[in-house]
Each structure stands twice: as C-alpha cells, then as structure tokens.
Amino acid sequence: MEPRAEPPRLRPVEIAPLPTPRGADRRFLLSDPAGHLEAPLELSGAALLLLALCDGTRMPDALRAEYARRSGQELEAAELAAFLAQMDALLLLDSPRFRAHAATEARDWAAREWRAPAHAGGAYPAEPAALHAALDGWLRAAPALPPPRRRLRALVAPHIDFHRGGAGYGCAYAALRDHEPPEVVVLLGTGHAAEGGRFIATAKGFETPLGRLPVDRPILGRLEAALGAGLFAGEAAHRREHSLELQAVWLAHLFKAAPPAIVPIVATSFDDLFEPGAGPLEEPSAGPFLRELRATLQMERRRVLLLAGADFAHVGPRFGDRAKLAAPFLAEVRARDAAALAALVTGSAAGFLAAVAAHRNRDRICSVASLFALLFAADANDGALLVYDQAVDPEGELAVTYASAALYGDCDDPRGLPPARTPALERPE
What is the pTM of this model? Predict the structure, then answer.
C-alpha cells in the first residue's frame, strides 16, 4: 500500500527581498541556514506566495484554491505538481525525501570522529599557505595593545565572514596572542540552524586546513554528567555551523605547535526570555547549563579561555526592516549596540541582557545567548572593547554589526591560574 500523501510543508528557511529596479516585479532570495540547499534560490513574488501557503495544512487542491483567492490567478494541477516536485528535489519541503536525506546525513555525522571543515574553500582559503598568509595579514594590521596585567578570561570575536570582518578578528586574536596560551578553549557560538536545546554541545573535535583541535573530555564529561544526554540534543547543528568553525581556524593558526583542546557549544535564542521572571537562570532549558558551566570552570586549575564567536545587529530590508538603511538609522543601531557593549566590557551578564531587553532585541542581535553564557561563566570584572564596526551593503539592503572585546579577571595564583573560589551566582534583574 502506498504511503498516505502529506500536505506540503516548507522547511525553516530564510527569505529576503532582493534589490528591484523601479517598475520591475519584486524578487526574493531563499537560503537554507541548515545547508541542505546548495546555493540560494531566487524566487518571484508568485513563487514566494505559493511556498508560504505550503504550511502543512493544505492538500494540493486546497492550496490551489487559496493561491487563486490571494493572487487572482488560476494555477493548473499539473503546474502545482511540477512546482512541488522541484521544491522537493531541492530538499526544501519537509517530506519523506528530505527526511530520508536528513537521516543519511545524521548517520554520517554520528560515524565521524572529527567535524570536517564545512566552509574551507568558500568562506576562507582551503590551501594552508594562503590561509596562514591571510590571517597573518589581519594580525599585523591590529593596533598594539598595552601589556596585559591580568588574566584574559574571555574573548569576543566576530563570526561574520572574513572579508568583511577581518579587522575585528585580527584585533581579537592579537589580544589572545599576547597572553599565555590557553590549555582549553570553551567555544560558544550562534546556532543559526540549531534545533534542540538552548545550548548544544558536540563531542567531536574540529578539523581545519591548519590542523586539528581535539575536544576536552574532562570539561565536556563533567557537563554531560550533570546535564545528561540532553546536552547533545540537536548536535548535528554543528555540522555546517560557521560561528565556531571560523574561531577554530584562528586557534589552529595562532597555536600551531600546541593547539588547545576545545569544548564546542552552540546556543539558540533568548528572545523569549525578556519578560520579568522569565530570565535565563529561571528557564529550565538554560539555567541548569549556565550554572553548571560556571561551576565546572570554577573547579578548573588549567588555563581555560571562554571564546564567543558573536555578531551583533542584523538590520535592513533583507532582515525584515521596511526601509533601506540610512545614516540616521545606522546611528541609532550604533547607540543600541554601544549600550550592550558598555555592559559587556564590565563583565556583567545581567547588565548586558538588560541592555538588549530594553529594546527587545529590536536589531536582531544573533548572539545574545552565547554572550550571556560567556559573561555569566567568565568571572571577569573588567574589559576592553577592541573593535566595533558596521558592515553595510552599498545598496542599503542590509547591515551586520560586529565587535571584538577582551575580558579580564583578577588573578591570585602566581602561575596565572584562577583563584579557587566560587562567587555568588549573578542573577539578572
């Protein structure tokens, strides 16, 4: 017996308007954060409407009727069938074909000991000599910093692509270069296509064109013992996530002789946790992880660095704003970013979250959760903003802002290790 037909349902994707000449029909760009679509797909307004109606509630006849009602255009059954077949072939529909594909990828991921570099040859050079040269160029361009007097506990670097954010990366990793190398780096990144928990770890080390970074089993093991297998729910989100891969490339470059072990963790969103009484520490999907990460690092006697691959605002029509970007609005974005960064460099997780909650993340800062976790766990009490910039599309369609920051803490141990103490947990207001 043939399986029962399913109403077509579009998978989670990102859709943004494209620049359109005056008088021309509007066009849109569909991209897949999960990476199953090989290249972004350009859509007409009619195709976008049809896809939007594929929400899992309408069989094809009902879908045709609703399309005709909204567009005023009749759609033949054969035309719809051909369109749906094309979308299914592109793996854009949540269908048996896609689920079989996803299951195969999940089995392949589970069988791997190491996470392969997903963006080498695209976001950055795959050839080691060319990659070393590019990264060295950004390091040389970084301004000199005063000699460090305290322990570097945490670092914020961008995760924007290198060609737009190279200066930000260079300043962040120049600050790290001037300190004693960490033995372990807890990597916190944005899970752009993550589904599972708020914080999702992987037990796989990272391969890069410049060498491998092994996973730190002691720290990851303590987290898993306290939090259970849920720590890895949705782990396949790491497969193509760039926010940590780009940091791994820099760490492999900076510490060629002895790469640090890593604890890779991606975070989803805190946008639903801005209401009073609904803060991260009160949320069962976030609070236990945050407390356990902080307690685990307080017990560590090795040199551990917290490192967040974090971008800030995402604004403009490509991200849902109505008007093209102009200088007055970008100045407002800069002011809102500045308030969040002013709290961040004091080491205050509560202050940082309050600054973002004040405008309910109006500018779509994608890294609120990972930055909150870094601040909450770092035990830092001072910091320095190294870089802030706005990468603005010349057409005014989008801007992504980014920053680099170094966070420091007092150090009682002559070896440069953290003091053995467990401060009171910081709670958001």
Answer: 0.85
